[in-house]
TrEMBL record, chain B:
A GO term from the CC aspect: plasma membrane
Keywords in alphabetical order: ATP-binding, Cell membrane, Ion transport, Iron, Iron transport, Membrane, Nucleotide-binding, Transport
Listed PANTHER family: IRON(3+)-HYDROXAMATE IMPORT ATP-BINDING PROTEIN FHUC (PTHR42771), PETROBACTIN IMPORT ATP-BINDING PROTEIN YCLP (PTHR42771:SF3)
Protein name: ATP-binding cassette domain-containing protein
Organism: Falsiroseomonas algicola
Location relative to the cell: Cell membrane
UniProt-listed Gene3D superfamilies: P-loop containing nucleotide triphosphate hydrolases
Any GO BP annotation: iron ion transport
Lineage: superkingdom: Bacteria
Record Pfam families: ABC_tran (PF00005)
ABC transporter domain: residues covered: 2-236
Signal peptide annotation: none
Length: 319, 252, 321
């Protein structure tokens, strides 16, 4: 274990696997109908890449900012919050008005609401008294249930006929992703990456914890704030594209820490991203064409992620 | 010079540090002592801007720590707290190299590398440099963190109970190291100590706290009297001169 | 039984009477009198409203008491059927019967679901024994995650078998489908609740831990087995007849414990009454809030239960410091 593998070698292997997964996804089972299949699959692959980026980066950064390996934005209910924000908007504006609005404007509004809420949440959970990690995680999980129930409740109150129409158009899932938001999502992912490029070294320092990073001259509060904003944006992107994916982040962030012989974010972030691509594109290709299961990827990720979570708890990785 | 002016820390009704005014000149080793709950660690944390003050001001070489950018302060003052649990999995060398972050911004130069090597050598950590921190004993890890603080190469070094997880042999070695750092490298070291006799043997100046206030301060000779110890700790002690040092006996 | 409890029972009965007249079809005392015993209003009352009201009361009582039993036996305030994998296991069991023996009578379905619930809870307890317990909060956290894993299995299988619709129907607690002839199993749950009341002292002692229980002359294993049996049966019955009611068994006993402490024999009647009341209130709310549509009780309890759970969680922590 101590005999250090080269991080660049690990990245190269992961990159090759990710490329292979993407190629597999694009080509497996296309029977001559290339003209139809390729554009269709390309859009799906682009969605997967963006979701992989958003989930991987947001989870790794969230874990760096909160200093542990078990809290993730999704476990803390951020995904469900996005669905709730969207439902509240539909509820407040009325379905027809909502449907008439510019999709991108709406998305911007939702992202703004997410950022505001994530600060409230952060202040409520992390501010004030020092709380045990278990309380935070349990509180987050229950909060996620609360958000989901509230969203479900509001969705029931909205006129059922209207809602059926809305559900198709605005609430994405893995089965019916929203390709309409691809461009804006890609722009946000790019912006996040560019902003992040300059912050990589600071995040390395941040992973030493609050006190050490302050001693080393980091403006800890500002750094955590920045990360929260990024996380809120990225979670919005991924949830808007495919709906909540609870355990993908936990899975790839922990795998990244496990395979990457380095603590540097310059290595960890790309590793988590590539692992997410392998999970999504490779997993989907194998499930769809290998086993003929078309839409169970998310369930399988939840299954594996849940087991990993339990294993992390049982092995006492959570303090 | 470190100046604390009317520094207080309150949690609701509870006052932990109560209007402390203190001047610590440059150079030498200053020990802060006192019973549990006297506010020693809180005061140290506020000086190092880890803990926001409820009232008062702290200046380091004239710089207000609450207003000065963290990066500027990090070149003048470093602190090591008691419980150093890291979420990240690092080797000793990685950790010590982080001490150079205030100077290099994460892009280490050859000079930074030299600082790291010197710090490792100073704490006799060369053999452990490539080991992961979670593979070390508590004492070894403590030394690694001290090495990081040394690599940071600041004029002022604050240590919060640095002897906490060390056995007798390593505790003595640590205090000798602190003295050497003060004498050879010209550092100003301020540390919180639990053991009065360590303070007596190794500090130039002792600050005694009780109930959030500075009760008295002075040279070891001034503090190491039965009357002073009774006032600080509510303990009857006798003070003996052993090998030119003042040792308090309060075990019986 | 004190006067206050009597008052609470009367309030519960009053709510039950009101519940008979709340819903889409108009049932009023005036119409009942005017149409006579064979009229459509009376038919609606007898076939739908009365069974529904009884079902809600029985379920509310049984889940509340089952929650208390789990909390006593696991010695943890935050455990209940939906935070220990019990409810999800029952749901998986139900799916298994539907796949393997779709024609089986409902009693068999319930028994299989109970078997799965028992196995799931046993698995949960086995995992707990592996864990160095650092905090009480880890127990419900583990249970929630185990429940999620089991749920993933159920969803996967249901999807493969094309049964996702039915699974969704029974995972979201809903009383609107309750009619005469389709809820009577809940009387079994009620009987078990009464049994739990009779055995209450044993559960209290068992809740003090194996060592204390043994030194007081109690067969700890037997009490534990009996408690788990009751919990599994109650959970399976409720899941089979109305679906999951998340966090309900956690919230009710905790509210009662806040007011009157943890003595099981004294607490159980209060938990039963309060459980019936709270679930009936949620169900009636679901009937009127978006009239003429109905909101399933599971959705409302999800909101109320999760909010109360959070309040308990942070209130407790604040008190402990």
């Amino acid at each position: 274990m101590t005999a250090a593998r080269d991080p660049r070698l690990v990245l190269a292997v992961l990159g090759a696997l990710a490329l292979g997964s993407a190629a597999l996804f694009m080509t497996w089972g296309v029977n001559g109908a290339w003209g139809f299949a390729l554009p269709f699959r390309a859009a799906k692959l682009a969605t997967m890449l963006l979701v992989a980026h958003a989930v991987a980066v947001s989870t790794v950064l969230f874990q760096t900012a909160t200093g542990n390996r078990i809290l993730t934005p999704a476990v803390m209910g951020f995904d469900q919050l996005y669905v709730l924000v969207q439902t509240v908007l539909v509820f407040a504006l009325g379905a027809s008005a909502f449907a008439g609005l510019d999709r991108r404007l709406l998305f911007a509004g939702e992202v703004a609401a997410m950022i505001a809420f994530s600060f409230l949440l952060h202040a409520a959970l992390f501010g004030g008294a020092r709380r045990s990690l278990h309380l935070l995680v349990l509180g987050g999980v229950v909060l996620g249930v609360l958000f989901r129930s509230l969203a479900g409740f509001l969705q029931r109150i909205i006129d059922p006929n209207e809602f059926a129409f809305l559900q198709d158009r605005f609430f994405a899932s893995f089965n019916s992703p929203h390709h309409g938001l691809l461009a804006i999502a890609a722009a946000m992912a790019l912006a996040a990456s560019l902003l992040g490029w300059r912050a990589l070294r600071r995040w390395d320092v941040l992973s030493l914890g609050r006190e050490v990073s302050i001693t080393l001259g980091l403006d800890h509060r500002r750094e955590v704030t920045r990360i929260l904003v990024m996380v809120a944006m990225l979670v919005s992107v991924s949830t808007a594209l495919v709906g909540p994916v609870t355990f993908l982040g936990l899975l790839v962030a922990n795998l990244a820490h496990a395979v990457m012989p380095s603590f540097r974010h310059a290595h960890l972030l790309p590793a988590a991203f590539l692992l997410a691509v392998i999970c999504l594109a490779g997993g989907q290709a194998v499930l769809e064409h290998g086993f003929g299961f078309d839409t169970s990827l998310r369930v399988i990720i939840d299954f594996l992620g849940g087991i990993l979570f339990i294993a992390l708890l049982v092995r006492g990785k959570v303090r | 010079m470190i100046e604390a002016i009317g520094v207080s820390k309150r949690y609701g009704e509870t006052v932990v540090v109560d209007g402390v005014t203190l001047r610590l000149p440059r150079g030498g080793v200053t020990a802060i002592i006192g019973p549990n709950g006297a506010g020693k660690s809180s005061l140290l944390s506020m000086i190092a801007r880890l803990l926001p003050m409820s009232a008062g001001q702290v200046r380091v070489d004239g710089l207000d720590v609450a207003r000065t950018p963290g990066a500027v302060l990090a070149k003048r003052l470093s602190i090591l707290r008691q419980d150093n649990h890291l979420p990240a999995r690092l080797t000793v060398r990685d950790l010590v190299a982080f001490g150079r972050y205030p100077h290099s911004g994460g892009r280490p130069t050859r000079e930074d590398a030299a600082h790291v090597e010197r710090a490792l050598r100073y704490l006799a950590l060369e053999g452990l440099a490539e080991r992961f921190l979670d593979e070390l004993s508590g004492g070894q890890r403590q030394r690694a963190f001290v090495a990081m603080v040394l690599a940071q190469d600041t004029d002022y070094v604050l240590l919060d109970e640095p002897l906490n997880s060390l056995d007798m042999q390593h505790a003595v070695a640590m205090m000798r190291l602190v003295r050497r750092a003060a004498e050879e490298l010209g550092k100003t070291v301020v540390l919180v100590l639990h053991d009065l006799n360590f303070a007596s043997c190794h500090a130039d100046h002792i600050v005694a706290m009780r109930d959030g206030r500075v009760l008295m301060q002075g040279s070891p000779a001034a503090i190491m009297t039965p009357e002073a110890i009774a006032a600080i700790y509510d303990v009857e002690a006798t003070v003996h001169e052993i090998g030119g040092r003042l040792i308090a006996a309060y075990f019986a | 039984m004190g006067a206050r409890l009597l008052l609470a029972v009367l309030l519960l009965l009053a709510m039950a009477v009101v519940s008979l007249f709340v819903g889409v079809g108009t049932v009023t005392p005036a119409r009942l009198l005017a149409e006579g015993p064979e009229g459509p209003a009376m038919q609606l009352l007898l076939v739908s409203r009365l069974p529904r009201t009884i079902a809600v009361l029985l379920a509310g009582m049984a889940i509340g008491v089952a929650g208390l039993l789990m909390q006593l036996l696991a010695r943890n305030r935050f455990v209940e059927p939906s935070t220990a994998g019990t409810a999800e296991s029952a749901s998986l069991g139900l799916l298994a019967v539907m796949v393997l023996a779709p024609e089986a009578p409902i009693l068999v379905k319930m028994l299989v679901a109970a078997g799965f619930a028992l196995a799931g809870t046993a698995l949960f307890l086995a995992i707990l024994r592996q864990v160095p317990l650092r905090s009480v909060l880890m127990v419900p956290l583990l249970g929630l995650m185990l429940g999620g894993v089991i749920e993933a299995v159920t969803t996967f299988l249901a999807y493969r078998m094309d049964l996702l619709q039915s699974v969704n129907a029974w995972t979201a607690g809903d009383f609107s489908g309750v009619l005469e002839g389709r809820y009577e199993l809940l009387w079994v749950a009620f009987a078990l609740t009464v049994l739990a009341w009779f055995a209450a002292d044993r559960f209290t002692v068992a809740g003090m831990g194996e060592d204390v229980a043994t030194s007081l002359g109690l067969d700890h294993r037997r009490v534990l087995a009996m408690g788990l049996f009751i919990v599994a049966m109650v959970t399976a019955t409720v899941v089979v007849t109305v679906g999951m009611v998340p966090f309900f068994g956690l919230v009710v006993p905790n509210l009662v414990a806040m007011a009157m402490g943890d003595h099981a024999r004294r607490a159980i009647p209060w938990i039963a009454v309060l459980g019936g009341m709270l679930l009936l209130a949620c169900d009636m709310l679901g009937r009127v809030i978006r009239f003429p549509y109905e909101i399933p009780v599971g959705t409302i309890v999800g909101v109320v239960g999760a909010a109360l759970f959070l309040a308990l969680l942070f209130r407790r922590q604040a008190r402990l410091g």
